[in-house]
Every structure is written in structure tokens, then in C-alpha cells.
């Protein structure tokens, strides 16, 4: 959370003119909108907040490239598979508030939604998730218009990235224990597939995910086991 404090409306009422009070309130409202995103007319944070968020995202991105075991491991195995990923292909940028990141196969790039990370660990999981998609594309030439292909990659990405660790599920308010990891992977893969415009409905997404689940869940490449 930013530690800076923004301008406040004046405490004096008798000595300030109405226009001065209005001006102070506008400054305060603008500052509040910058900090929270509330009251802005666009679907993404304002320009000045974006700049701060992108700078923080870039700093954390480089730290994770240098220090995160899972990010380093995935980048190494992408390079070994003939798909070296330069840091510039991990792009910090503005997004709407519904996602943390995404893989763009046309550009061979990962989009990191700079304003939507609540911690460095959240960003680490997002990078790992999208790097699994990139690895699958590199290694297996995924056809992203094929729902079975996408379902398999979503199953692997959710399983291998840390998205479905017990602590991650607790943070989402999911408290199941027995079979928690597999159920999380299945649920999140269905949600991702259902969001694909080529998927007609959630029932189709569930059917496709269930059809490929066992074989794709067992495939932990390039890891020896679930990270």
C-alpha cells in the first residue's frame, strides 16, 4: 500500500471561500480516485496510478526472474526447448480488473496486469502459470482454438504454478481438504475454458476438462512432480 498521504479538504470553514473549499474537495476526490480506482470512468486505473503500478511491476518482475525458483526453472526449460524468453517479452501493462495476466501466443509474450497484483507471491504464481502455457505452446505446438488443447494447458498451468496450493485456496475462502488440489485445478480450468468465446457454455467446458483431466493432470513436465 502506498504510504504517501494525499491532500485533504481544509479544516477551516469560516475563512475559506466556497470556491476554495470546492477546489480542495476536488483535489481530495482526485487523489482518492487515484489510490482506489473508484470514481474513474475507464475500466483501468488512471494514468498516474498506472505509471506507479507498472514501475512496481517491472521491479518485481526482475526480482522474480533473478530469485524465484519456479520462474527461473521455467525460463531455463523454455530456453532448453528452443524458446528463450527475454525479459522484454514479460510485459507489465494496464488491464481491466478481472485478470492478473495472460499469454499472447501471437506475440510470444506474457502480459502482466500491473495494477492487479496484491503481493509479489501472487505475481510469481501468475508468471509461473503463464510460463507453463508458453512452455506447452513451445513444446507441443498448442492449437488454442482447440478446446481440448486449451483445457489440457489450463489443467497443467493451474496444477504446476502454485495456483492451487492449500494457502492459495484459503485466501480465496475455499476450505475443503480432501482432494482440494485436484478440485481446484478442475474448477479453475473449467472457468478459464468457459471464458473462451469458442466455448458455447460452462457445461461444454466441464465436459471437455473432464475428458482430458487425468492424462493432463499427470503430465508434470518440465517438473518431476507438482511444484
UniProtKB/TrEMBL annotation:
Listed A to Z, the keywords are: Hydrolase, Membrane, Metal-binding, Metalloprotease, Mitochondrion, Mitochondrion inner membrane, Protease
Mark the transmembrane ranges.
none
A GO CC annotation recorded here is:
mitochondrial inner membrane
| InterPro entries, A to Z | Peptidase_M76_ATP23
Q: How does it sit in the membrane?
A: Peripheral membrane protein
Q: Where is the signal peptide?
A: none
Q: Where in the cell is it found?
A: Mitochondrion inner membrane
Feature: compositional bias, Low complexity: 10-24
What is stated as this protein's family in its record?
Belongs to the peptidase M76 family.
The task this protein performs is described as: Has a dual role in the assembly of mitochondrial ATPase.
Q: What is this protein called?
A: Mitochondrial inner membrane protease ATP23
- Which species is this record about? Armillaria gallica
- Which lineage is the organism of this entry classified under, starting from the top rank? Eukaryota, Fungi, Dikarya, Basidiomycota, Agaricomycotina
Amino acid at each position: 500500500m502506498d504510504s504517501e498521504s494525499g491532500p485533504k479538504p481544509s479544516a477551516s470553514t469560516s475563512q475559506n471561500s466556497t470556491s476554495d473549499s470546492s477546489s480542495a474537495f476536488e483535489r481530495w476526490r482526485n487523489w482518492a480516485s487515484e489510490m482506489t480506482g473508484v470514481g474513474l470512468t475507464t475500466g483501468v486505473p488512471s494514468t498516474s496510478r498506472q505509471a506507479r503500478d507498472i514501475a512496481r511491476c517491472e521491479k518485481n518482475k526482475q526480482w522474480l526472474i533473478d530469485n524465484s525458483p519456479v520462474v527461473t526453472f521455467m525460463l531455463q526449460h523454455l530456453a532448453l526447448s528452443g524458446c528463450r524468453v527475454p525479459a522484454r517479452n514479460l510485459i507489465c501493462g494496464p488491464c481491466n480488473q478481472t485478470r492478473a495476466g495472460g499469454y499472447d501466443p501471437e506475440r510470444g509474450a506474457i502480459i502482466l496486469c500491473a495494477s492487479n497484483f496484491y503481493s509479489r507471491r501472487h505475481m510469481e504464481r501468475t508468471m509461473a502459470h503463464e510460463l507453463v502455457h508458453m512452455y506447452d505452446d513451445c513444446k507441443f505446438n498448442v492449437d488454442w482454438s482447440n478446446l481440448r488443447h486449451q483445457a489440457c494447458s489450463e489443467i497443467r498451468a493451474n496444477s504446476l504454478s502454485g495456483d492451487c496450493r492449500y494457502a492459495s485456496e484459503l485466501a480465496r475462502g475455499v476450505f475443503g481438504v480432501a482432494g482440494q488440489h485436484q478440485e481446484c485445478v478442475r474448477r479453475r480450468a473449467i472457468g478459464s475454458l468457459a471464458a473462451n468465446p469458442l466455448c458455447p457454455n460452462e457445461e461444454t467446458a466441464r465436459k471437455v476438462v473432464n475428458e482430458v483431466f487425468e492424462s493432463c493432470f499427470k503430465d508434470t513436465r518440465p517438473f518431476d512432480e507438482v511444484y
